[in-house]
Amino acid sequence: MTLLPAEPGAAPPPDAPEFWTLRLYVAGQTPKSITAFANLQRICEEHLAGRYQIEVIDLLVQPQLAQGDQILAIPTLVRKLPEPMRKIIGDLSNTDKVLIGLDLLPRV
Amino acid sequence: MDPLRQQLPKTPTGIDGLDEITSGGLPTGRPTLICGDAGCGKTLMAMEFLVRGATRFNEPGVFMAFEETSEELTQNVASLGFDLKALSAQGQLALDFVYLEPSEIEETGEFDLGGLFVRLGYAIDSIGAKRVVLDTIETLFAGLPNPMILRAELRRLFRWLKDKGVTAIITGERGEGQLTRQGLEEYVSDCVIVLDHRPVNLISTRRLRVVKYRGSTHGTNEYPFLIDEDGISVLPITSLGLDHHVSTERVSSGIPRLDAMLAGAGFYRGTSVLVSGTAGTGKSSLAGHFAAAACARGERVLYFAFEESPNQVVRNMGSIGIDLGRWVAQCLLQFQAVRPTFAGLELHLTTMHKAIDRFKPHIVVVDPLNSFISAGNETEVKAMLIRLVDYLKMNEITGFFTSLTTGGSALDHTDAAISSLIDTWLLLIAVEGGGERNRALSILKSRGMAHSNQTREFLITDQGVEVCDVYAGPGGVLTGSARLAQEARERADDVVRRQDIERQQRELERKRATLEAQIAALRLDFAAQEADALALIEREQARESQLAQERMDMAWSRKADVASDTEGPQ
Q1: What is the CATH T-level fold of the domain A2-101, as seen in this structure?
Q2: pTM summary value
């Protein structure tokens, strides 16, 4: 399990309207999970620079966490904050869909 | 079965009857598909598999629910006596509810079902599960995009379950043209069980069929099953053969003269007895006698009444001098009264089975048998009765059935066409004539004994049933008051004949007397004549001698020469 604040030391003020907490569930260092993590970092840097936090959970290490967020597919990205919770599955290679899933782009 | 033959390892389900159909249970370490329409009992069957595994076979299980939450499941099966909370607390059961909301999920590229594997693997390892249920995994197709990936992942999942060595049940909704909506049977192909739930004549029946079982023999029929307060029971019938133990012991019918007709000793124990007849011919009375006689011997009797309430049966039998209430009080006689239309045939059969299993009777009375016709069609009724009769025979229980022959049909015709199943068949007929209806009884058949070929009149008195001879004479077979009248007439004829003979005897006597009188008279007559004749002769002799004397006297007086006298006068 790794906790990766994208920009350590650049924590936003607590009253910032949109601070993003993202959780990425993977199962081991598979090509899909590595791709997903890379894609996620890229998208966050482009759209949420300075106001996001990514938590990567490896289910092979912590299998008991799978039930809590109802994880079935791997990789799954969960937007914990801001509410409501969103779930995005897949390796995040389709950027438009990721942005729609994160509500960064309006749904068509 | 040859015990030496290598058998596929099997995991007993613990569900009544299912293990008999599958000869042992589900294939150990392999997934089994249970599919069927909504509401046919898939989830329950799967749950019972886990609960029985945990409670009877010490095999913990994982239930992964895709449709109901753990709380809902716990509540739903609590009515069957399954305490999922307690089992979970004991580490015998793990419940995992998989929630999928398609609107919350966005697919953004390649994925797999690693999370599902992780969750399942975690649940299995945490309690050391031997059994797994996935209910209903096809929901994934509605919740997740990209069916191609899902199919590949399911294939991998079933492979993985096999590698884990767990015995799994996968449930699936019935699809059109195939067993499940997503064709799961292509992946889970070791054992496939189809459940069905269809109403016939307004009465719905659940049925089960083992469509496929790789590497094992199995019952191929559609077996009805029942969900009641004890869980699922499948009717384990027709797996029965014709190799049951046969008894030579005889049981009395309770009517001495009927026993006499049955080669002197009554029915064989463990056989099936049918009493058929039109309405009001005394079928139930015979059943009552039989039941009371059995109870008096200390045997247990289970009485299925489909047309009368137990109290009514007891009262009616009391009116003909059979006290059944006493045996009910002593727990030797038990009634099961239910309307035939109350349930489908299978439900009836299953409840009967259960009652028989519980009470372990020596004798079962079903009164009347053909009321089932109203609950099913003839073929089904026959199939059911075959199973019932087989079941009774297997357990060496004497079955006593009554059957109502409807007006207009042949007397030796039973509605359910079950005559071939019956070992002893008593026929009760109503003989109409002389302004009354009388009952007659005959034995149509009785396997294995030299039974009487006689028709007997059958009287219902307040002392019970009496069997007596009928009048069989030149006037045909007569019963009732016609028989009494005929007997009276014969008695009168007898008297007349006797009087006739007496009269003739008297006449003869008189003639003899007359004859003898005549003889006497003749004798007297003769005696008189004889006396006269003798007197005449005597007189004549006297006269002769007198004449001779006179001549001598004359001659002497003439002093005639004797010689000259001899030469005559000169």
Answers
A1: Glutaredoxin (3.40.30)
A2: 0.66
